[in-house]
Amino acid sequence: MTGAALDSPGTFPGDAELRETIRRRVEAAGTSFYWAMRLLPQERREGVYAVYAFCREVDDIADDWPAAERAGGLAGWREEIEALYAGRPHRLIARALAEPVERFALRKGDFHDIVAGMEMDAEADIRAPDLETLDLYCARVAGAVGHLSVHVFGDASPAAHRVADALGRALQLTNILRDLAEDAERGRLYLPREILDRHGISGADPAVVLRHPALPSACRDLGEIALRHFDDAEAAMAECSRRAMRPAATMGAFYRAMLDAMLRDGWRNPAARISLSKGRKLWLVLRHGLV
After folding, report:
1. Cα–Cα distance, 214 to 17 (Å, whole number)
2. Residue 217: which residues within 8 A CB-CB, separation 6 or more?
3. pLDDT tens-digit readout, 113-140
4. Residues 8, 259 contacting (CB under 8 angstroms)
């Protein structure tokens, strides 16, 4: 798996080809992220694409590399972050990040926090963490991405960073509730211990928990926590530059609509993956991103 990474050291393309390589990877993912980031001017869009490519790269290490190689792969990225901030990036994605880091004053600690979140996944399969550990995980793998993103969007105010904290947690909890079956296949269960205990769900075997009759109630409780984070993000966003935060508002709208759909469906079939239609996404872009 290590030889399959996009960002393996080697001969790199020129700047134009580099940007095109990153763009193709982001667009190939086909995510809601791509729809929302299309709202940005080109230089900001390319900056956030580079951040996204970094996140995908370290996420792939934590998810797909052989278990014995994951720690080394992530440690290599910690070294590369230091090289990037010393002005000597070696890897393709780090080279793509060099200009955004300088132009948008991206914080080194946020990149290290993202790696720390991936290390939580890489060290051992996460199963029924306590709420405090789950919150730390969300802050690292999603909140830190938000902190980098708001700088690229053009609003680095304290309110924008509050949006990053709240919206990052809301999006990550929504992902957890959407990907229950996929995570279970990897041996992971992110539903928190306190909520499982509240509904009489003992143990932490993902396959067993997903078959428990009280699972929908537990998921609904975690969904309520996500909704509170969405509300906190919306309140903080009211203090931010509306224009700069359009991508964040659009992402929030996408994910809140997805969470609402899951709450209506009630997790009757955890393997049924909820998604938004292209028409629904377009409507949300028009409503939250262009007005």
Report:
1. 51
2. 199
3. 999 999 999 999 999 999 999 999 999 9
4. no
75-90 tens-digit pLDDT: 999 999 999 999 999 9
Residue with tokens 């926090």: 113
Q: Which amino acid is at 79?
A: E
Q: Among residues 58, 235, 67, which one has the least CA distance to residue 159? A: 235
| pLDDT surpassing 70 at residue 219 | yes
Domain map (residue ranges) of the chain: 11-288
Contacts of 244 (CB under 8 A, 6+ apart): 150, 153, 154, 155, 160
Instruction: Please say whether the beta carbons of 115 and 84 come within 8 A.
Output: no
How many angstroms separate the CA atoms of 216 and 258, rounded?
16
Query: What digits encode the pLDDT tens for the residues 24-68?
Result: 777 666 566 766 787 789 899 999 999 999 999 999 999 999 999
On the question of pLDDT at 11 being above 50, the answer is: no
Helices 144-153 and 108-123, axial angle in degrees (round to 10): 150
Computed over every residue of the chain, the mean pLDDT equals 90
d(CA 254, CA 246): 12
Q: Is residue 177 a contact partner of residue 222, using CB atoms and an 8 Å limit?
A: yes
Residue entry with tokens 């003992």: 202
Query: Quick check: 145 and 169 in contact, CB under 8 A?
Result: no
**Alpha-carbon span 22 to 268, nearest angstrom:** 38
pTM: 0.90
**Which CATH number does the domain 11-288 belong to among 1.10.645.10, 1.10.600.10, 1.10.1740.10, 3.40.50.2300?**
1.10.600.10
Sequence-ordered list of residues with C-beta below 8 angstroms from that of 194, at least 6 positions apart, any chain = 130, 131
Phi, psi of 127 (to 5 degrees): -135, 115
